[in-house]
Amino acid sequence: MSEQIQEWRDAPLAIARGHPAYEGHFPGHPILPGVVLLSEALAALEAATGRAPHQWTLANCKFTGSVSPGTALTLAHKRTASGGALFEIRAAHGVVASGTLTPRARA
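Above: the chain's sequence. Below: its structure in token form.
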């Protein structure tokens, strides 16, 4: 039995064409570092769920494509029965990152 209990929800993920992370990564062929992509996704998830980034544990994450300046992105996410979240970061050419978040126990 799948623990997925909710339909996918989509939200635009706006990364500025001139984001400073593109500089030097890599000269002549800039791509967005995965850590920046993940940070932006966590911020968008906070807006959608009310759960701050520090309240999640990244159970797994896979980067499957590159993001060049100006690439339009969508964050797709859904909750799981255990209170976690599945996410995919999608571009026109396919999924560029995906993963699972689990909620951290509140102290």
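The domain at 9-103 is CATH 3.10.129.10 (Thiol Ester Dehydrase; Chain A).
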